[in-house]
Amino acid sequence: MNTPLTPALPFAAELPLAIAVLAGAVVPFQAGSNAALGRALGHPLWATVASLLVSLFVVLPVLSAMRAGAPDIGAAARGPWWLWIGGIAGVAYITAALVLTPRLGAANFIVCVVAGQVVASLIIDHFGLMGLVAKPANLTRVAGVMLIVAGMLVVQWGTRAAPADPVAASAVGS
Questions:
Q1: 68 by DSSP, 3-state: which?
Q2: 110/108 Cα distance (integer angstroms)
Q3: Residue 145 in contact with residue 126, Cβ under 8 Å?
Q4: Which letter does DSSP use for residue 18 in this model?
Q5: Residue 6 carries which DSSP code?
Q6: C-beta atoms surrounding 48 within 10 Å
Q7: How far, in Å, CA of 61 to CA of 132, rounded?
Q8: pTM of the entire structure?
Q9: Distance (Å, whole) CA 146 – CA 17
């Protein structure tokens, strides 16, 4: 049912949103599996290496199936320096996820990641960084980001309020 508060989106707009939500939904599984892999391998950085190698082994056959041409390394090398920070950011994220997810829990870690992503994205959009078209931060967009940050704080507060150890929780209740 479409009301003024829920306008209809054409399927062409809904599909990318659904794919983005699905992509976001797999991130906690990535964090959890990488954390377990880090424990199994004996060091978080080995899990980062393994995760990136698995990614490489998955993407190469896809590139082959798509008959993608060879990359133009020369054009990329002539581009701005920030073209290459994606790999650094990937290593930082994967390593942080596998180290912090066991300590914080999946929900706490991911809600912090999302808050950081949204704040940084607003800044990128506002200034048109990374080769993107500038989309100025207005009051509505800033309020939305503030709600996300507030949600992060609520999740963190709710986690701190709940006892982490069920044995300790039963001891407190008796």
A1: coil
A2: 6
A3: no
A4: H
A5: B
A6: 24
A7: 30
A8: 0.75
A9: 21
Integer CA distances (angstroms), 85 to 41, 89, 92, 129, 139, in order: 26, 6, 10, 13, 30
Tens of pLDDT along 16-70? 888 988 998 999 999 899 999 999 999 999 999 999 999 999 999 999 999 999 9
Both tokens assigned to 22: 């699905």
Cα distance from N-terminal residue to C-terminal residue, the chain: 50
Contacts 24+ apart (CB under 8 A), 64-73: none
**For residues 174 and 166, what is the distance between their CA atoms, to the nearest angstrom?**
13
* DSSP collapsed to 3 states, 121-152: HHHHHHHCHHHCCCCCCCHHHHHHHHHHHHHH
Q: Residue 137 and residue 45: Cα distance in Å, rounded?
A: 37
Which amino acid appears at position 113 of this protein?
V
Residue reference for tokens 């994606």: 86
Q: Give the C-alpha separation, 133 to 106, whole Å.
A: 33
